[in-house]
UniProtKB/TrEMBL annotation:
UniProt organism field: Microbispora bryophytorum
Biological process, per Gene Ontology: proteolysis
Name of this protein: Peptidase S8/S53 domain-containing protein
Entry-linked PANTHER family: CEREVISIN-RELATED (PTHR43806:SF11), PEPTIDASE S8 (PTHR43806)
Active-site residues (renumbered): D274, H309, S479
Length: 743
């Protein structure tokens, strides 16, 4: 149990001992009473509103604390130190705040006695994950007598008969839902008051890790025997996982998998204000390097995550690129974990933001929300903005208006979107589908909060990431959407030239320009309501266009490349020698071969060559794999100087196991539909309908999107041929390149 009355860090004054911490042994029964309310108390800045005609003395933080400590009806918990405003900043300094417990009636009495004091409820914050089940509340009918009880026993195991301990089982009926967790034998018992088997409307099972969730509408439940549910393993969907590294569908949608391996976020600091991050996990070990525990005040408490929430967010931002599990956006960024959950309050958030300002954090991920507002939290977030700290905030998950602090103008507020073929049927993710849907299968889920405050949207349904201690889970929520944007923000700060030039200073201009770049990179999603999607989904290629324009392909002789490709295709049985003439297998004139017209003109090879290869393999016109999905083979790469994109902006198709030092891995395959969204770029450089959101034309491009001239007489040709070779190699149609030093 959390003890919110312990000292939280060494920078603040100790708290008095709490009786809640003395529960080691059971004591005599105690009557249950209402808890006192917790308040933040601060002296109003001068000039303060005072009673007309009355002389009211000014108060400072020390005086406020002494005044409250001397009051027998007040219990002081701690004091948050004050902070001066940044030089030249518009926001004033932050006052000292005393956190104390007292009754509502006593607060009103103190307000009348000390009008120069400001009182604000220190309210609880909530995780921005999705409540289960989806919000379908109906009034309880009067036909079921209140004395009726139904007890349901559940057995949760996988198809091999392995029980799943710690799985959450939620049963909903016409009245209140009931929930239980499975024991070591995979069994759980749920008792419903005022319900019968016929009145049960749904059963939801969410395993702790390693499995997909299960949702059954109108289940036929028995009260006399075990009700069996068998979740599906994640490895049944993602072949070889977690031994083989994968990109999540959201990372692919934002084109992270198309970035060159040189863009990794080095030099940027990111803070995850959440429930901590389990550094024992392989994808977080050596990735989360520091932090602060604002729950128990333990020196390393930030490295423990009992809620599984902060670890999931941290791995989306910066999961290790080690060839297994998942991979994050900014794999070389410095990540800090600020632990405020469970029982996180406004005052804890203020302290966490103080830590971020002191540590010169660049990007803060806030996957939290409240239905109430706080002037003190708003002032602290503005102070952080003035100090160059960019706050990326989840919109909230109750399906209503945007929560706090997402409504503030100085933050980047993120809504969630989903994709219909990113999860199997029969899961809880399926229940969140809400129309309309784009041709690519994108939809706005039922849970996401919406409103004019939404800046952008990001993947937040069926997001695969790490959970303690070495597992993986697929979760929903704007909590999962916000880290996608925070990770991209870190890449932009690290590699966009503007932040090494005119916006290099740590001030509000830097934050505002960062948010402008992210919004400008978005690909709009037509889901019927801009208040659910904002500017659209951010696109990594667009956001990092200036860095990508610096790519310089390694010079390769076009004849050599074409000859190597033709030999590989012939050896794989994809081309007959007669198709290329009898004088050689390079296919060039002068060698007795039959030249492709594009090879002589300097244009990309004729699309017919790719079509011919695909037809030889018995594939569809969309690519060598039905639906254009690439599920295996090493990922393509390019040699670059100073960062950039592979030649011709090729789609470096994710595939096989990655290796350290590159964004390797397998695409999080979508086996449930050959649906759109992962179309392949044709050899001619155009965008295939159904391609990833924001695909851009092939070829090197300047920062403004203008195509750049080829680096040599055969630059376009070699780029096109390199693209085709990598596409076919990633699809498993060609063997590994023996000359590739990274294999």
């Amino acid at each position: 149990m959390t003890n919110n009355d312990k000292p939280k860090d060494g920078s603040e004054e100790p708290r008095p001992a709490s009786p809640r911490g003395r529960q080691a042994s059971r004591q005599a029964p105690q009557p249950v009473e209402s808890r006192p309310r917790r308040y933040m108390v601060a002296a109003l800045p001068q000039p303060h509103p005072a009673t007309p005609g009355a002389a009211v003395p000014a108060l400072d933080g020390d005086t406020v604390r002494r005044l409250l400590e001397d009051d027998p009806e007040v219990r002081v918990l701690r004091r948050l130190r004050d902070a001066a405003g940044n030089p030249g900043a518009q926001a004033p300094g932050f006052p000292a705040v005393v956190v104390a417990e007292m009754t509502v009636e006593h607060v009103e009495a103190l307000r009348r006695q000390y009008p120069q004091l400001y009182f604000e409820r220190d309210r609880l914050l909530t995780y921005s994950d999705v409540p289960q089940p989806p919000r379908r509340r109906r009034p309880a009918p009067a036909v079921v007598p209140p004395g009726v009880e139904s007890t349901f026993a559940f057995l949760i195991r996988d198809a091999d008969g392995t029980p799943l301990p710690g799985a959450s089982v939620l049963v909903t009926g016409h009245g209140w839902p009931a929930q239980a967790s499975t024991g070591t034998d995979g069994r759980a018992v749920v008792t419903m008051v005022g319900e019968t088997p016929e009145s049960i409307t749904g059963v939801t099972v969410r395993p702790r890790s390693g499995y997909w969730s299960v949702h059954v509408d109108r289940p036929a439940l028995s009260t006399t025997r075990d009700n069996l549910l068998e979740p599906m393993r994640l490895s049944e969907t993602f072949a070889g996982f977690p031994g083989k590294q994968v990109f999540g569908w959201g990372q692919q949608a934002m084109n992270l998998d198309r970035l060159p391996p040189t863009l990794r976020g080095a030099g940027v600091k990111i803070a995850i204000i959440d429930s901590g991050a389990d550094v024992r996990h392989p994808d977080l070990r050596d990735r989360v390097r520091a932090g602060v525990d604002l729950v128990d005040g333990a020196p390393d408490g930030w490295s423990i995550d009992a809620a599984y929430h902060g670890s999931h967010c941290a791995a989306v931002v910066s999961g290790a690129d080690d060839g297994r599990g998942v991979v994050g956006f900014a794999v070389e960024a410095e990540v800090h974990a600020c632990k405020i959950f469970p029982d996180g309050r406004f005052s804890d958030l203020i302290q966490a933001l103080d830590y971020c300002i002191e540590q010169q954090i660049d990007v803060v991920n806030l996957s939290l929300a409240s239905r109430h507002q706080s002037s003190l939290v708003a002032a602290k977030i503005e102070q952080a903005r003035e100090a160059g700290v960019a706050c990326v905030v989840a919109a909230g998950n109750d399906g209503g208006p945007v929560g706090f602090p997402g409504i503030l103008p100085g933050v980047l507020t993120v809504a969630a979107v989903g994709k219909a073929d990113a999860f199997p049927p029969g899961t809880t993710h399926e229940t969140e589908i809400r129309g309309p849907m784009t041709g690519d299968g994108y939809f706005s889920p039922r849970f996401t909060c919406h409103g004019p405050e939404i800046d952008v949207c990001a993947p937040g349904v069926a997001v695969l990431s790490a959970v303690p201690s070495d597992g993986y889970a697929v979760l929903d929520g704007t909590s999962m959407a916000a880290p996608h944007v925070a990770g991209l923000a870190a890449l932009v700060l690290a590699h966009h030239g503007d932040f090494q030039g005119p916006f290099s200073g740590r001030d509000a201009r830097r934050v505002d320009h960062l948010f402008h770049i992210i919004r400008s990179s978005c690909v709009p999603l037509n889901l019927g309501d801009l208040h659910r999607t904002g500017a659209g989904m951010p696109n990594a290629l667009r956001a990092l266009a200036p860095a990508l324009a610096q790519i310089t392909p390694e010079p390769v002789e076009a004849d050599t490349l074409l000859g190597q490709l033709t030999a590989e295709m012939t050896g794989a049985g994809l081309l007959a020698c007669a198709d290329w003439g009898q004088g050689g297998d390079s296919g060039h004139t002068g060698q007795g071969g039959q030249a492709d017209p594009g090879a002589q003109s300097g244009m990309p090879p004729h699309p017919g060559m790719a079509t011919q290869a695909a037809c030889s393999a018995g594939a569809t016109a969309n690519g060598p794999v039905p639906g254009g999905l690439v599920t295996g083979g090493p990922r393509g790469r390019a040699t670059a100087t100073g960062g950039g994109v592979p030649p011709a902006d090729q789609r470096a198709a994710p595939g096989g196991a990655g290796t350290r030092g590159k964004r390797g891995g397998t695409a999080a395959a979508q086996p449930y539909a050959n649906g759109p969204g992962r179309g392949r770029t044709p050899a001619s450089g155009g965008r295939t309908p159904g391609g990833a959101a924001g695909d851009v034309p092939a070829g090197p491009r300047a920062a403004n999107g203008t195509p750049m001239a080829a680096t040599g007489p055969s630059g376009v040709e070699q780029a096109a041929m390199a693209w085709l070779a990598e596409e076919m190699r990633a699809a498993g149609l060609l063997g590994d390149d023996p000359a590739d030093p990274m294999e």
